[in-house]
Amino acid sequence: xxxxxxxxxxxxxxxxxxxxxxxxxxxxxxxxxxxxxxxxxxxxxxxxxxxxxxxxxxxxxxxxxxxxxxxxxxxxxxxxxxxxxxxxxxxxxxxxxxxxxxxxxxxxxxxxxxxxxxxxxxxx
Length: 124
Fold this sequence. Notes:
By secondary structure, this protein is of the alpha+beta class. The chain is built from two helices and six strands.
């Protein structure tokens, strides 16, 4: 079994750095069967997911992870990753809390892709 915790940490660092710098570059992490649920809005497929992410109503964003938990999710080597954190958008002074869950599946070449992605802002 691969080191799922290490893979989860590497994935989330790459994902959020890419998201914060150029969201369109996230396309390589998704496949046509991938699904994103963003604030209860379900989207399927690479192009539709990237369109959703690149059309979010802010220009600048910075993710700050608070927690990261990971578990093996299938006999085929899948990994489920749950993160919590805060994000700063544009010139907003108060961070917004969020949680996000990814199911990563092996792509057959030694890498992983995002099969499921669920994002939710936490208002408290």
